[in-house]
């Protein structure tokens, strides 16, 4: 699922892009560079197991991506925003929460699509009709593959 143009949100400590396949966190600007240096992290949607969004209000808001096999650490609510300002899988924001909400919703949808059950397998071919099965048994018996007893038992099973 490609999103064109990609979704974009600008946060306090980085910028976030989502194109339907990759979540890209770019670190540009003074605050981002002072914490992470100028960098870019691309995360394939198949590696994202969850996304958490906390809207801004009295404290900073954030969006955080949980990576399969990654180590999460819990923190008290008041500290989560400041803790996430140093988390390489999170972007902290003061305003513009709508753009982050749109990205969260799109990532949630993409995660759900990744985990959908594979399409049902095609139904098995119908067994050959009784005449064909009897002919095959006869050929196996004539070729010596089946003994007289095996042939008789198999024929009895087919005929009911």
UniProtKB/TrEMBL annotation:
Domain DUF4429: from-to ranges: 17-107
InterPro entries: DUF4429 (IPR027860), SHOCT (IPR018649)
Domain SHOCT: start-end pairs: 132-159
Residues passing through the membrane, by range: none
Pfam family, one: SHOCT
Official protein name in the record: SHOCT domain-containing protein
Organism listed in the record: Embleya scabrispora
């Amino acid at each position: 699922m490609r999103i064109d143009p990609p979704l974009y949100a600008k946060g306090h400590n980085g910028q976030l892009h989502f194109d339907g396949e990759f979540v890209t966190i770019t670190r540009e600007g003074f605050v981002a560079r002072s914490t992470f240096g100028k960098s870019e992290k691309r995360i394939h949607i198949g590696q994202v197991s969850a996304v958490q969004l906390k809207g801004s209000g009295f404290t900073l808001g954030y969006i955080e991506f949980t990576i399969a096999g990654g180590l999460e650490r819990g923190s008290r609510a008041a500290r989560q925003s400041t803790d996430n300002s140093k988390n390489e899988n999170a972007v902290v924001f003061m305003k513009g929460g709508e753009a982050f909400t749109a990205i969260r919703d799109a990532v949630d949808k993409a995660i759900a699509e990744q985990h959908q059950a594979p399409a049902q397998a095609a139904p098995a071919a119908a067994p050959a009709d009784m005449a064909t099965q009897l002919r095959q048994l006869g050929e196996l018996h004539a070729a010596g593959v089946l003994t007289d007893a095996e042939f008789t038992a198999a024929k009895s099973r087919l005929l009911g």
